Each structure stands twice: as C-alpha cells, then as structure tokens.
Amino acid sequence: MSGDTKMLHMVNKSPFEKTALSSCLRIAESGSAILLFEDAVYAALQNTSVANEIVNCLKNLQVYILGPDLAARGMSNKPIIDGVKTIDYDGFVDLVAEYDAVHSWL
Amino acid sequence: MAEEYEDEFDGPIKRFLFVNRKAPYGSIYALESLEVVLISAAFDQDISLVFMDDGVYQIAKDQDTEAINMKNFSRTYRALDGYDVEKLYVEKESLEARGLKEEDLLVDVEVLNSKQLGKLMNAQDVVITS
Amino acid sequence: MKFGILVNEGPFTHQSSDSAYQFANAAIKKGHEITRVFFYHDGVNNSNKLSEPQSDDRNLVQLWSEMAEKNGVELIVCVAAALRRGIKDEILAPGFQISGLGQLIEAGIEADRLVVFGD
pTM to 2 decimals? Predict the structure, then answer.
C-alpha cells in the first residue's frame, strides 16, 4: 500500500483552548483537508490571532468549516477567512467518503 | 517471507495508528488508550503508536504513583513488544519543547521530526485517538 | 460506504455525542451504512437509560436507541470502561450492548472509514 493516502483531519477544539489545531497544522501533509467543527469553528474567522495560520495552510490544504456549529455560536454573520469552505452534516459525510482516512485531533 | 505459524486472524491487514497527545494520570485517556492497543495486538494488524505533545510524558521514566493512589501502568509500555507492537514513534519537537531527551523515556522509540511524522501519520488506514 | 464510529465522551458534557449522532444520521439518510457505533471512555454514559434531560431538550440516549431500532445500527459499550463508570446491563437503554474492545478493532477493520468523536 502506498503512502498516498489523502487524510481528512478533524479538529473540534478552539485554538485558544487547546493545541489540537496547531499540532494538526504542524503534521498535516499537502493534499490533506481539515474540517473545523464544534468549538474549532472560531479558527476560521477573520481577524483572530490564529487567522494567519489558516491563511498559510490554505496554500497546501483544503479547509472546511461546519456551518451548523458556526451558526450555533452566533458567528454566521462574521466574515470567515477566504478559501475556507462552509459545509453542513451532509457535506461532512461526503468529505469523510471522499478522503481515504480520518484523523481526529483529540 | 516464510510463514512460521498459522495466523489465527484471517482477514485484511490495515495500518492502525494510535495517537497519544495527553499526559498520564491527569486524565484516563493514556491508560484506556493503552488497553485498546493491547487488545488490538490479537488482530494481527499493522500497528503503530505515536507519542506527541503531552503524550510523550506517558513514556517518561521513574513514574511513582503511590502518593496519588493511582495504578502505575507505565511498565505496560515495555510489555508491548511482547505483543508484537514494536512501532513506537515520538515527535522530536514535542520532546524538545518539554526539555526531554530519548534517554528520559522508558521504552525504545524512534524519534521523528514533524515532517517525517507527518508522512508516517498520513499513510494510515485507521487512526484511533483519545 | 460503511462507516464505523467511535464516541469517546458522554452525553451533554461534550458535544461529541451530538456531533457523532448528527453525522451518523446524515450518513444513514444518504444511504451509507453505519456498521457499528462504539462507545469508549466516558462515551459509555450514552447508554444510561436513567438519563433524564430537561423536557425541552434533546434526549441523546433515546436518540441513539431510536437510531438502533429504526436502522439496525449496533451500539456497543466497552465492558471495562462501562464497569469503571457503573454502567451495567440493568441500566442499559434499548439498543445498547456491552461488549469487548475487540469490537472496536473489528469495526476499524470492517468499515471503510472509522470516525472518532471526542475531546
């Protein structure tokens, strides 16, 4: 089996609370995708102290954010970083199917 | 490679990765994750363990839990190779950030930098984290 | 596609169980198969039939039981983790079964994808 797995990284904790996102960004390989959901959705907003990290990783990775979690937290009207794609639970399922394996950063 | 014995498990072999990012004792994840690894050994899969971030503390030497009244399960990591779980990896950056060296660890590991670890972690079929 | 799911946290305290449930629900509606939902660590508390959330709030334990009943989804609670937390046969909600960690590994082997929800 080749090492060409396309990995979907799932991050669910706020980057201001835990190091899951920063560790994920350190490890994720080019061609992978990151799904930000639950409290991690804050990482996709513009004008935060972590915004640059997301902007940088978009050069090599796809970044998705779970819309329902953004809405729940009252952030739907705030601008999210250009290039981050908003999906719902259906999209979440499609993403898991599209990528070869899933790594949840807990 | 010649088969020296008949495999009891007759099915596909997947690459299982167990990722450890949390310190021991402050929460149960280190212990319960180790319990999964021990069981997984019976299924003849291709198993790797990664210790990164605070997970490196799980395999620190000299753990003495008597005064906190908790079970010291650190010796179990040394028993892993008896279960044919031999691929243990530690992230170099995580060790350095914590002022630790390989000799501070109680089990033989391969130390990889983030880039090398990324490559390894990317090439897995099933990633179990806690 | 066949999905296996691992739920590491109990209901309400973390969003993990909700996220896992919403994911499983969406997957079933799209015609995928959930081969097994395995509950580990505090996730075993999702099986407690004594859970009584406020009447205007979702009842996660019940939602999982209903998913098992309507869609034949297997809900497995790890025996060792359950015993530690006082989850025993007598308080299991319908659709949940207590079994060993081997079921988690098997789920990883048999499913096309294993998705982990936790803290």
Answer: 0.96
Pick the closest to residue A7 from A26, A25, A34, A41 (CA basis): A34
Cβ contacts (< 8 Å) between B48 and chain A: which residues? Answer: none
Amino acid sitting at position B25: Y
Query: Tokens 């605070």 correspond to what residue?
Result: B54
Q: Which CATH number fits domain B15-129: 3.40.640.10, 3.40.1260.10, 3.20.20.80, 3.30.465.10?
A: 3.40.1260.10
C118–chain B nearest CA distance, Å: 7
Q: How confident is the model at residue B2 (pLDDT cuts 50, 70, 90)?
A: very low
Nearest by CB to B118, which of A1, A29, A102? A29
Q: Is B45:B14 a contact under the CB 8 Å cutoff?
A: yes
**What is the tens place of the pLDDT at every residue in B88-106?**
999 999 999 999 999 999 9
d(CA A23, CA B35): 24
Test A104 with C32 for CB contact under 8 angstroms: no
